[in-house]
Amino acid sequence: MKGNVEYWLCWIIMILFWIFLWTKPTFPMTFKEYINMPIQTVESKDELRIKWKDFLGIDLFQPYFVIRDVEASFREFTAIDFGRLKGRLRFGNRYKEVEYKFKYEF
Q1: Could you read off the pLDDT of 37-83 as tens digits, one per residue?
Q2: Considering 2, 33, 61, 82, which has the largest number of Cβ atoms within 10 A of its Cβ?
Q3: DSSP assignment, residue 92?
Q4: d(CA 92, CA 99)
């Protein structure tokens, strides 16, 4: 029997790795697949968000949705309407550029 700590640590890590492979944890969906899912499946998006929250213990998607809500409220707050001319704020290049996009209704 060897008294080397590294030796026993390697064995423990290897056993834990094999247990991990044997149980084969399955992830509900990747973040990119979740965001690019069609809008018709909004209920399933909420279900997937709950599954990920249960799986990880934290809401992984919360920062994304908070940023989208803040951006939407900021766009609504900064909207410009001059009769038929309507301007909306638009962010570009990872929020480094800000521009107004105007529409004119005939």
Answers
A1: 665 655 677 777 888 788 778 887 888 888 888 888 888 888 888 88
A2: 61
A3: E
A4: 8
The one-letter code for the residue type at 80 is: I
For residue 58, report the phi and psi dihedrals to the nearest 5 degrees.
-135, 160
Give me the residue spans of the domains in the chain.
Answer: 62-106
Q: From the CB of residue 4, how many other CB atoms can be counted at a distance below 10 Å?
A: 8
Q: Where are the beta strands (DSSP E) in the chain?
A: 80-82, 85-92, 97-104
Question: Is the CB of residue 16 less than 8 Å from the CB of residue 22?
Answer: no
Tokens of 15: 């056993």
pTM beyond 0.85, yes or no: no
Neighbours of 52 (CB within 10 A): 19
